[in-house]
Specification:
178 residues, alpha+beta, Glutaredoxin, two-stranded antiparallel sheet, 4 helices, 9 strands
Length: 178
């Protein structure tokens, strides 16, 4: 289980059009938002990534970079990126499912073709959204067992504004006896 204020797992993978992404060296002044998505087969992911793309500039104004990541290979990732208008969102591809588990993502098995007629991979990770601080510690994390009811990027931006203005620490860090 990932804990706020503790170091996150490493994340190194290739991206479309932006070379290699390495979490230990590619964190902006105030951090990075990592959106783990299910893959090309997921129409809800496409909608979420379109929304993410719309907010990349606003995150950048606050000193936060953005990347979308899945276990899809380069070809499927390119097809997903083509569904997302704009070019400021980085797309990482080829994440191993071992890495997905290290990040606390849930793993699902294929149910065949989805509602949009695209075959699900045999195994894939469910969604997760993380804000990682510049020291590579977890600031915010959300993982899901289902593709539905995703966090909203506009709300995350509002929370980030509050955190910056009030020097608000990551919460959920306590691990002692209760």
């Amino acid at each position: 289980m990932l804990l706020p204020r503790q170091k996150t797992p490493n994340l190194t993978l290739l991206t479309l059009d932006h070379g290699e992404f390495n979490l230990s060296t590619d964190i902006a002044e105030r951090g990075v938002v990592i959106c783990f998505y299910r893959g090309l087969h997921c129409p809800i992911c496409a909608k979420q990534l379109i929304d993410f793309q719309r907010h990349v500039e606003e995150f950048a104004k606050r000193g936060v970079s953005c990347i979308a990541v899945s276990s899809d290979g380069e070809e499927r990732t390119r097809q997903m990126a083509d569904k997302v208008p704009g070019d400021s969102l980085k797309f990482g591809y080829g994440m191993s499912l071992t890495t997905a588990k290290e990040w606390g993502l849930y793993i699902s098995t294929s149910r065949g073709k989805t509602s949009i007629g695209i075959e699900e991979p045999a195994l894939f990770s469910e969604p997760g959204l993380f804000l990682v601080s510049p020291d590579q510690s977890l600031y915010y994390g959300s993982t899901q067992t289902m593709p539905f009811a995703r966090p909203h990027f506009a709300e995350l931006l509002g929370a980030l504004d509050f955190a910056i203005a009030n020097d608000y620490p990551a919460r959920g860090e306590y691990t002692g006896e209760v």
